[in-house]
Amino acid sequence: MSSEHSVLKQLHPLIRPYVEMVLRKGNVGVCMGNLRISDVKSGPTLTQTKEPCGDRFKIYIPFAGDSLKWEVIFDSCQPSNPPDFIFLGENGNFDPDIEKLENLTDWDPKNPESLVLVIEDLMREYRCYQKQLIEGYSRLQFEYSSLQGLEACDDVEVHMGNRLPGTLDSPVNFLIRLPIDLSPIPQYLVKDDPGEDLAVLLAKFHNTEGLRVTPQLFLSPKVEHALGDNTALRIPRFPTGGCLLDYVPQVQDFLQKQIDYIVEEYQRRREYVAAFISRFGGSVLEYDAESFTKLSLVLEWNEFFFVLHIELPSRFPQDMPVFTFQSCYHLSKTNGEPFVSVQKSYPYSPRWTGEEMAHRARLFILDTIPQFQKVSVSSTKL
Amino acid sequence: MSSTASTAEEEEVIPDSTVSESAQSESEEILSTQEEEKEEDAEKKDPPRDEAPHGESEEMNSLASTVSSSQDSQDSSDGTIHALLPKVNCPEKIVVCLDMSKEMSSRHVSSRDGSRFSPLSLAKRVIEIFVKTKSRMDRRHQFALLILHDAPTLVTDFTHDPDVFCEDLRAQEETMECQTTFNVAQLLQEIVQLAPLPEIEEVEIIPPPYVVRVLLMYGRSHCVPAAPEDSQQMLGELLQSPHLFLDALYVHEPPAEDNHSIEIFNAICDLDRKCLSYVYEVATNVTMFHNHMAKLLAHPLQRPTQSDTYYKLQSSEDVS
Prior knowledge:
Chain A contains 9 helices and 13 strands. By secondary structure, chain A is α+β, with helices and mostly antiparallel strands. In chain B, helix 10 (261-270) links the parallel strand 9 and strand 10 (279-282). Chain B starts with a helix and ends in a 25-residue tail after the last helix. In chain B, the strands form 3 sheets. A 6-stranded mixed β-sheet of chain B has the order 5-4-1-7-9-10, with helices on both faces. A two-stranded antiparallel ribbon of chain B has the order 2-3. In chain B, strands 6-8 form a two-stranded parallel sheet. At the A-B interface, strand 9, strand 10, strand 11, strand 12 and helix 9 of A face helix 6 and helix 11 of B. Chain A: Belongs to the BABAM2 family.
């Protein structure tokens, strides 16, 4: 933000509002990465002045996994004139038809959003330009058109990069926005992450033949936290000779499965805790009422009281909960903490219902408690 | 000891002796009198389900039921249990109020190996186990220590760290003769200054950021906790607050002609205006002291009411 602030400070005050709007609202395209403005300069001025008079700058627009570099040139002597654009680097051949850029031809100096609108026009034309570029390549054309109207694809940007040295070939990026619905995810996983649910698949075609494709999945922070931080690393491989028409639905399916998985694991934990509360309701000390990962009870066997802590691992029900028996009478001699005995292995099956697990747990506790009593008394002192 | 080794081991192992065993065994862990045996017997019954939610001794029960009927008339507008907050395990701010009156160190009870403990040393021990266990269950819980002489004194302000708390707790040695009155209203007032209660509009729906729980460890058998007339209303309002909970463990001389144990117990029960408190009492049974403290671990928003508590793990022969 401070770099944005310094950019704005350098600009001529009449030009500044347009740029401010761009920084605030310049979300164009599938948008993976941040729009950036830098290199503020000023053209020749009529007067010598110490006031900021920057009237030209470079703008970096994220597009299809690359960054477009354009130069925007206003004239501080005539700030109400629309700006010129130079398309730098690999976009040098982009030559939009000015007639199609309505917000440029009818530039409204009084509207601070004018520059945003022009950039949107340009991006629209740029997308068309890219589409035209790939028309010459049947493979790419096929890939692009096959994605249109595909359910697993909300939006796609394609971008042809610089020519590969020594060839007439270029790498091509397809950036595909995948539909994602996080609403079934339990609240506690998403409540601290404002922001959008975004999942984009970047498919880098190393050449126009599409024989080698490197896929990468990018998730917004909210999605990443909800699904587990290394979900993006585990997407299915792009099959050799495969195509996006088949692959994109695979990835979308993979994402959906992650969501289903999270939801199901939560439900199973909740069911487990509910079953224990139902069976041992008169003995509840406390339990995690948000993510259902732990529960503690105080129980009595033959006038011997003890505390039982139950912790559900992240991969429950595949992994079994850990039972920790704790003495209410004795502190351990070694560390001054209440005496405990941890049980990580006992009769268990992930296929049991929560109720069955609670029933079997009771049997296990009954089996274990006599020994626990002996050990807790003999190894500590009252 | 004339018992065989195995029997001795068994007796060692079972910290609580049943009435029949204590009559027979030579290694008794408590000094038992007729009265105390009766008390133990009654204590082993399931807590009564309806009126007297708090008493676990027979003698206490009969008077407790009188108290609760007067309780009913006190909140006659409120026959039912109060509005229940959402059952969330929000952090607790637990204020341990440790009585440091002379009586806490002037009496002694014996454990099974013959060592003698004062109520104070037992209280310190069980509080330590309590704080460490609570902290293990949730690191967000906080603990403060108030000691009670004639007036409450803050020893430890709220801390998440059980070790810090326990160090201050262990340092409490000096008991004092106290006056014949104990002002409950003043205690609660100081507590809510120490821990302001959350202000929430829809208490039944919105989980509070924390609840305040007072753990009163009271040890006087001659001084009845009371509130002066002009504080009664304030006291009543505090005790009705949805986010304030008052639990108590009352350690006392066995009820007798020359003490007020029963009256005091009833006075403490009377503080349970919402019927959501856990109140326990114990005279000399060391094991019971520990058991009650374990029950007090329960989170006020998630635990059953005291009359609904049930801890017995039935053996396999019983109906599952």
